[in-house]
Amino acid sequence: MSETAMELIDLKKTIGKKEIIKGLSFKINKGEVFGFIGPNGAGKTTTIRMMVGLMQVTDGDVQILGNSIKNDFKEAIKEVGAIVENPEMYPFMTGEQNLKHYARMIPGISKERVQEVIALVGLEKVVKEKVGRYSLGMRQRLGIAQALLHKPSVLILDEPTNGLDPAGIKEIRQYIRRLASAEGVAVIISSHLLSEIELMCDRIGIIKNGELVATQSVNDSTDAEQQRLSQIKLEVTPADKAMELLTSHHDINAEISNESLSFQLEKEKIPMIIETLVKHDVSIYQVGASNATLEDKFFDLIGENIIE
Ligand SMILES: Nc1ncnc2c1ncn2[C@@H]1O[C@H](COP(=O)(O)OP(=O)(O)OP(=O)(O)O)[C@@H](O)[C@H]1O
């Protein structure tokens, strides 16, 4: 059974006269990794700043375990752990010393919890080394460990893969999945790079111009259905006649560009299509089929390339 960790209810933000966030509503469950994706300037950081109480909500609400960030700020915010800007760490202290130093500032954190979070992000081997010698990936993991010290229900990471090399991204990916299941926290990760975070998310929400365009489970049944479909490309003459035949005989809505038709279809049905076209004297020059990826679908949804 899923339990809601965080809920955005018609969340809005206006700065000056500009409406930057235009009414976002969605829920994130405990133990879920949720990717918050959108092109630069879409409003991810603004939304996250409201989620973590760094910016006032103009209208609507953010609820964390049912507590409103507007009305029960203290209760709500104690369930949030976040890395929004680069975490402050002392480079001349070891990772462990940094965590202990931070833990002393929060009431009720046990020594055991410090060791627990170190293990959660897999830093046992380097935790006695000075942070100044850490890679960016290790520093990010130490930041995550720090954000988890007080056992929050929601962990929010704003662009955690920024500046990381592929190995660093892989490191973060592995630990995020693990801690969502081990700690049962809801993890929210923002990024403008779908390809980098797709593999670690259960679900993805796409934001554009301050509005939620879609939410999509990464591996749900509709997705499996989608994966059976191939993107078919046909080079034919005359293309308009071919298009009519596809619609009338096979109920396919194709897109036409020059002499080329594209549409989605199960691969097994290609011979049937070709038979119809040949029977009606359409010349076929080329047939191509490729699987539509999650990326393709997102390009369709947001109408532009969000991958750099
Ligand atoms: N303080 C502000 N005053 C006016 N406009 C702002 C302010 N902060 C953000 N904006 C505008 O709000 C929009 C959303 O910005 P935001 O930083 O939330 O986007 P983002 O999705 O996080 O983008 P990025 O991926 O580039 O960080 C942008 O058009 C930005 O110019």
From TrEMBL:
Organism domain of life: Bacteria
InterPro entries (UniProt xref): AAA+_ATPase, ABC_transporter-like_ATP-bd, ABC_transporter-like_CS, P-loop_NTPase
Residue ranges constituting the ABC transporter domain according to the UniProt record: 6-234
Stored Pfam families: ABC_tran
Keywords (A to Z) from UniProt: ATP-binding, Nucleotide-binding, Transport
Molecular function terms, GO-annotated: ATP binding
Keyword Magnesium: no
Gene3D superfamilies, A to Z: P-loop containing nucleotide triphosphate hydrolases
Annotated family: Belongs to the ABC transporter superfamily.
Protein name from the UniProt record: ABC-2 type transport system ATP-binding protein
Source organism of the structure: Virgibacillus natechei
